[in-house]
């Protein structure tokens, strides 16, 4: 297991950032976590265009 003591920020990864995954990633980022996301289709990983 890697030693992650060099950073004070917890990092998490999200696989599949559809409707529910994107909301979860936003909430984790708002809580101060370093969030990295991967999605098979780039368009789903992008934020929606402004209305």
From TrEMBL:
Residues 12-45 form the 6-phosphogluconate dehydrogenase NADP-binding domain. GO terms for molecular function: NADP binding. It comes from Streptomyces lydicamycinicus. This is 6-phosphogluconate dehydrogenase NADP-binding domain-containing protein. Gene3D superfamilies: NAD(P)-binding Rossmann-like Domain. It comes from the Bacteria.
């Amino acid at each position: 297991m890697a030693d992650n003591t060099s950073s004070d920020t917890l990092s998490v990864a999200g696989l599949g950032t559809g409707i529910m995954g994107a909301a979860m990633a936003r909430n984790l980022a708002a809580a101060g976590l370093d969030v990295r996301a991967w999605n098979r289709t780039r368009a789903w990983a992008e934020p929606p265009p402004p209305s």
